[in-house]
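User: Please predict the structure of the protein below. I'd like the answer in C-alpha cell form so I can feed it into my own downstream comparison script.

Assistant: Understood. Taking the following sequence of 352 residues as input:
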Amino acid sequence: RKLLELRYSLLPYWYQLFVQASESGAPTLRPLWWDQADDATSFAHEDEFFVGPSLLVAPVASAGVKARKVYLPPGPFVDFHTGARLSGPTTVDVPAPFGRVPMFVRGGSIIPGWAPRQYVGEAVESTLFLDVYAAPVGTRGNLAYYEDDGASMAYKQGASSRTDMEFETTSTGSELRMQARTGSYKPAARDIRVRLHGIADKPSQAQVDGQDAQLSWDATTHTATVSFADSAAAHTVTFVHGAEGPTTPNVELSFSVTVPTNTPAGDIYLAASTAAWAPDSVRLARDGNQAMGVLSVPAGSVVEYKVTRGTWPTVEKDASCQEIENRMVTVTPTDETQSIAVTVATWGDLCP
C-alpha cells in the first residue's frame, strides 16, 4: 500500500516525463548511461534504472533480500528515504526492508508531486508539492512544469499551461525561482509546498518573494518546508543554510599489496569501481615487492577492485593464469580506516 501511494504521489512527475516522451521520444524509464554515456561502469548495471532524469531506482527482485548494492553514477545524489547526500561514482550498501525500495534523487532536481491518494480522480488536488534536492554550490536544476486537465483532449486546442522553474544551490543556501505561468489552462486554487532535502541543519531563514516565511523542519529526514498560495505570477523561494548537507563519512582504505618477485619495474595500481574502473585508477607507492596506497570511499559502500600495472593486459591473474573474480571490500561505517592486505599471484602479460 505504501508503494502504491508513493506511485500516486509522484504522478505529476510522471506526467512531465510522458510530455517529454511525446515531444522527443525520450523514454520514461532510462538506463543508467542515458545521460552519462561516458561512464563505462553504468553499462554494467542493468538492475537499476532512472525514472526520468532525476530519480534512480534500484529494486529488489529476489525473495528474502533485505539489502542490496547500488551503483551511483558520477554526480551528487540524495537518499530519497534518509536525506543523506552521496557523491558518485560509487557503490553503496543500501537497506531494502520489505516495502521500501532503494531510491536516490540527483542533486539539484525539482520533483513535483501530490499528497498520497488511492486513485487518480479521488479529489481535486489542493496542494502542489515541489521537492528540491540540495547539491554542491553552483549546481542548477530546471523543470518546465506542464499542466492540463489530465483527462480530455482539450490540450490539442491549447488548453494547457507551463511554469518554468530553476533551482540553484549557492554559498548561502538554496533558491527556487518560478517564472509566471503561461498558457490558457488554470488549475484549481491551491497551495504550493516547497520541501528542501539534503541539508544538514534547519535553515536559519526562509523567504517567499522577499518576505519572511514560516518554516518547518524534519530532523529525521533533513527536510525544510515552506508553503504559500499559488498564483499565475512568478515566485521566488529562498532558504538560508550552510552549503553542506548530511553526508556519508569517508573511510580510508589502506592497501598493502605484495607482488611476485618477477614483477617488472614500474608502478602498481588499483582498478576500482569507485573510479570508473580505469586500469590506473589508484596509484600505489612501490618499494620492491610491496606497494601501498590509500583509497577514500563513503562508509557503508561496497568497493570492487583488481590490481594492475597500469593497463588491462597487465591485470592480476591467479596462479593458473585464470582471470580472478573482482576483489571486494565492504566499508564498515564504524571505522575511520580499514587495512587491506592483497597478494598478487601473477600478471596477465606474464602468462603463456
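That's the full C-alpha cell string. The radius of gyration is 24 Å.
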